Amino acid sequence: MELYHLRSFLMVANEGRLTRAAQRLFTSQPAVSAHIKALEDELGLPLFRRTPQGMELSQEGELLKKHAEKCLTSVNDFVQAAKHLRHELVGRLNIGLNTEPETLRAGELLAVMAANYPQIEFHLYQRNSWKMAEALQNGELDAGYLFGEVNSPEIKAVPLRTCYLRIVAPLKWRTQLAEADWKTLASYPWIGVPELCPFHRMITAIFDQQRLKLNIVAVGDQEAMLSNLVRAGLGLSVMIEEEALNAQQQGLLWVWERERLPISLSLAYMQHREQDPAIQALLKGLHQIEQIGRL
User: Fold this and answer.
1) Which residues form a coiled coil (predicted)?
2) Among 124, 217, 235, 291, which is least packed by CB within 10 angstroms?
C-alpha cells in the first residue's frame, strides 16, 4: 500500500467522481482508477459502488475512510515536524570557559540560546586560555573564551570586549602597599602563573620594561587557586578585575588601585566552521548578550 493510494481513495470519496478526483490530484482518471483497484485488491474489500451518478462509498469504505484520514493526518504531521527541524538547530555545543561564568555572562548567554534554540544542549567546561586552541583543534570544544591574542591561522577569534587585570595582595599588606609603585611591588613575593598564560606575558613585559624581576614563590594555573594563596598571605598575584573587586568587597584580599591592565576577551572557534549554523547561532547570541551588557 502506498500513500498515493490513500490520497486517491479519499479524494474520490470526497468528490464522488473519478474525473474530478483526477483533476484535484493533477493526474489522469485511469491512474486514479488503478489506485482504487490496487487498494481494493490489497484489502480484499470493495471500497466503492459504481453508479450512474458516480462513485459511492460502500459500507466498508465508509468505515475505512476515517482510518485513512487519520493515516494521512499523521503523515502530514510527520512531514511538518521534519520541516520544522530543518529550520531548528538540534544537537550539542561544547563551550570552554576561561574564567568565572559571571565574568563571561555565560548565564545570560544560555538563557538567550535556550529561548531561541531549545533543541541545543550546552556543555560548559573550564579551560585555561592557553589550552583553548588545542581543545578546539582536536574537536574537544566547539568554541571557547580566551584572553589575549590567538596566533593560529586555523582559529578565528571574535573580539567581545576589553577586560582588566588587577594586582591583588593579602589584606595585611594593604597599608604598606597603598602608595607602592612597581619597584616596591617587585620587592614582595609573587604567586605567578604558567609562562603560556597571557597574564604572565603581560606582567613580565611590564617588569622587563622597568628592568625589574619578579620574585616568584609559587605558580598556580587557576584563579581560585591564586586567590586562595593570596588570602593565605603567600604573596601578590593578578586576577580579573570583576573577581578581584568581588573578593575585596568580601574582605578576602586587597586590590592595588594604581593600575588597571587591559586585556582582550574573545570567543574562538575553528576557522573552517565559521558558516556552521551552530556557530552562527552562538555568535548571534553572544552579540545580543554583549549589546545588553553595554547598555
Assistant:
1) none
2) 291
Q: CB within 8 A of 16, min separation 6: which ones? A: 53, 54, 55, 56
Q: Give the predicted TM-score (pTM) of the model.
A: 0.68
Question: Other CB atoms closer than 10 Å to residue 238's CB: what's the count?
Answer: 24
Contacts of 241 (CB under 8 A, 6+ apart): 163, 164, 165, 166, 260
Burial of 84 (0-12, 13-18, 19+ CB in 10 A): exposed
Rounded average pLDDT per 10-residue block, the chain, 295 residues: 85 89 85 90 90 89 88 77 62 91 91 87 92 91 94 91 96 94 96 94 94 95 93 96 95 96 95 89 86 47
Per the DSSP assignment, residues forming a β-bridge with 261 are 165
Give the start-to-end residue ranges of the domains of the chain.
3-86, 91-161+264-294, 163-263
φ/ψ of 178, rounded to 5, equals -55, -40
Place of cell 493510494: 5
Helical (H) or strand (E) element with 167: strand 155-169
